[in-house]
Known about the structure:
Elements: E1 7-11, H1 14-17, H2 30-36, H3 58-68, E2 72-76, H4 79-82, H5 93-108, E3 112-118, H6 124-127, H7 137-152, E4 158-163, H8 165-173, H9 188-210, H10 212-215, E5 218-224, E6 227-230, H11 236-248, H12 250-258, H13 265-277, E7 303-306, E8 310-315, H14 325-329, E9 331-334, E10 341-342, E11 344-348, H15 351-364, E12 370-374, H16 388-406, E13 412-418, E14 437-439, E15 448-450, H17 452-465
Helix pairs in contact: 7-9, 8-9, 11-12, 15-16, 16-17
Amino acid sequence: MFPCDFAWGAGTAAYQIEGGWQADGKGPSIWDTFCHEKGGRVFGEQDGDVGCNSYELWEQDLECIQWLGLTHYRLSLSWARLLPDGTTRHVNQKGVQYYNKVIDDLLACNVSPMVTLYHFDLPQALQDQGGWKSSDIAAIFDSYAKFCFHTFGDRVKLWITINEPYVCAKLGHEDGIHAPGLKEPGVAAYVVGHNMLRAHAMAWHSYNSFYRTKQDGAVSLAINSDWFEPSTAGCTEDISATERCFAFTLGWFAWPVFVTGDYPEVMRSAIDAQSEKLGFRGSSRLPCFSKDEPAILGTADFFALNYYTSRMVKPGGGSCGKMSMKSDRDAEEVLDPSWPLCGVSWLAVVPHGLRKLLKYIKDTFSNPAVYITENGFSQVGPLQIEDAQRSEYYKETISEVAKATQEDGVNVRGYFAWSLLDNFEWADGFSVRFGLFHVDFGDVKLSRTVYQSGREYAKTIIKYKGGRSR
């Protein structure tokens, strides 16, 4: 059902698990700043200062990874832990030592690391210079990427440059609910997304030119997308609205990389037209790529997909004239009442949506190799170690992935559950639990306990890769 070299993994991100926010020379990140500026930004005024304390308890995380029998582990590097001011002018050797140990320990246990360079935690020093809104950030990121390729690339064979640029752009610079907490509707998100694509492309070309021959790795960016379908099957207006949703989420970042080297035409035309209505004469809020910079097209060695849920779509209506991403897209997403909700209000349980999305990616982006780099199920409220519903979700979802590979011919190379541990879930703090292992944040030892879903995921891995059952 799955090839013998299929990647069975789980993921985490530095700010969400590491803690040690000031330890051993680490510089502050935008999430440190965002959480420390109180005022209802994060659930319960919580922060990631300690998190799962993986900076000190890495060996416990490794035990969890081994217990599950993972073949791969996805982690992110804290940019500010390695380069406190964001640049290579000052390298924090303690940070280098930490990640060297993590990578070496994984390999010693026959677990392959998938390393993300940027997972939402920009060094505050760079934010003070304009952050992702600054055109200079792409070259700065490229320098950081080259440092990481040089330092760790002899052992890391799977790289993600940037995680979920859509989320960073929209939630961090349009809605203001993620760091850096900016609310600049209709403008900043497009600039940020553009600079992230430029940064990714520069880093990919650097790897391709200077490191690929010796290191033989693969580089991509992780793109998040829901599955979208028309609210009313066969309705022309709903179909068009669905196409716009795809263009303004998945297509925003996948189209330039995999199809044309530029944004989807429906996205470009809608933003250009709305920009003119709003008085942006002779210019658009959606930037253009420069021919003087490295090409965007072809800068992914595989398709990295983060999928969580699905949405029904119909025309938005009533939003025209307002400067926002929503008015440009003019489409409204709604939940099908038959889909059960999973813990949080935005996450409907739709395993079959992943299969449909994988087929869409195959057909739209010339059948790339796909790694599902995030997929998960949240728990809120009273703790349930015996989380039968989540166990069933993983079973059904992996079954849908199998159908996508066997029946639809999608070239899926791996599946990474989100996440290894309960952790700091951004604006939701510790109120939402995605872990395969529960972390007791009320215990000074931050003890880890496997959920039923973790036990069942371990059995699934053993079933398909062979081995002794637990």
